[in-house]
Amino acid sequence: MERPELKKDLAEADLFRGLTEKDLVLFTKLGTIKRFKKGDHLVAEDQQGHDVFIILAGRADIEITLPDSGRAQVIATIKKGEILGDLMLLDYVRRSASARAKDDVTTITWTKEELLELFEKNTRIGYVVMRNLAKIIARRLTATNMELRNVMNKMIEFA
Question: Which of 45, 50, 54, 113 could form a disulfide with 98 if both were Cys (CB 3.0 to 4.6 A apart)?
Fold first, then answer.
């Protein structure tokens, strides 16, 4: 069944930039809608993951566990149109962080296997999505490097 409102939401997500309406319909048919209440975990740090999510509504905090205290530290907040679980498309890795619903959250979710099968059948779609994913990861890496530089600069100031 075609879901026009969902197709519109996906068209606005960076991961799907450059895809046609027909392409987006494939993703809407393949995806599963999941809902999370405020405070629920979408994913847990250090757990094996298989799902990739796009936030359709709400926000989720990305948290890491601090090694000395075991306390969760929010490092980012993702919102509508943003991807979670993106590294699952590149490798089977354990989750590097947790994601907790900051509000009630609605997502569309695919397994890695579902997406890779689609990319095998339609290499143009696979190329566009993976190119967009590379851009997203590059932006996140650049932001992380800037944050690290700022933290290291503060450490030098206090040394």
Answer: 45
Joined together, the tokens standing for residue 51 give 């799902």
Name the phi and psi angles at 156, rounded to 5: -65, -40
This prediction's pTM: 0.86
Torsion angle (degrees, nearest 10) of CA 93, 29, 140, 38? -90
Cα-based angle 126, 127, 133 (whole degrees, multiple of 5): 90
- Please, which contacts does 121-125 make with residues 24 or more away whose CB atoms are closer than 8 Å? 122/23, 122/26, 125/19, 125/23, 125/26
Contact present, 41 and 63 (Cβ < 8 Å) = no
- Beta-sheet pairing, 105-111 with 98-101: unpaired
Q: In the chain, what are the domain boundaries?
A: 4-158
- How far is the C-alpha of 110 from the C-alpha of 99, rounded, in Å? 17
Residue 89 predicted with pLDDT over 90: no
Q: What are phi and psi of 133, to 5 degrees?
A: -60, -40
